[in-house]
Amino acid sequence: MQETSCAAGKIRDRRDEAAESGYRAVHVIVVRDGRMVEIQLRDPREHEWALAVERLGARLGIGLKEGEGPDDLREYFRIASLGMYMERMSQEPDRTFIKAFDAARRRALPYFERS
């Protein structure tokens, strides 16, 4: 993660180096009217990823976005994030990545099927 300080505040860039969960975004932290304000900047794929993590975590009653939950599910989201990043960077996934993603997806599927 890159973190830059400037007169207006801080910038935390997690696009190239994701959080352990796979979360990617740029956070701009500023002081406005005496209060700290954090602005999250995400591209459409990063936003969809974050929404999926939040929605599934809420549906299952686990803090998935905080790194809680089953290892299989957390691994799926981590690998999915990497795949989206590779796509954004115009990188072709290799066989090892495709195999790992397919295996993670199969293990995570039962969590998506729960109601």
Uncertain regions: pLDDT < 50 for 5+ in a row?
none
SSE arrangement, N to C:
EEEEHHH
Helix count from the secondary structure assignment: 3
Give me the side-by-side strand order of the main sheet: 1-2-3-4
C-alpha Rg, in Å?
16 Å
Structural class: alpha+beta
**Head-to-tail CA distance between termini:** 35 Å
Sketch the major β-sheet. Answer: 4 strands, antiparallel
Oligomer: single chain
Mean pLDDT across residues? 92
Number of strands: 4
Shape: globular
SS strand fraction: 15-25%
Domain count: the total is: 2
Helix content estimate: 40-55%
Gist?
The chain has 2 domains: 40 residues, no CATH class; 70 residues, no CATH class.
Characteristic terms for this protein:
47% helix; alpha+beta; globular; 115 residues; single chain; 4-stranded antiparallel β-sheet; 3 helices; 2 domains
Written account of the structure:
It is a single chain. This protein has a four-stranded antiparallel beta sheet with strand order 1-2-3-4, with no helix packed on it. α1 (44-60) runs antiparallel to α2. The model has no long low-confidence stretch (mean pLDDT 92). The chain has two domains: 2-41, no CATH class; 44-113, no CATH class. The protein contains three helices and four strands; from the N terminus they run ββββααα. It has helices spanning 44-60, 71-88, 95-113; strands at 2-6, 9-13, 26-32, 35-41. The N and C termini lie far apart (35 Å). Helix content is 47%, strand content 21%. With 115 residues, the chain is an alpha+beta fold.
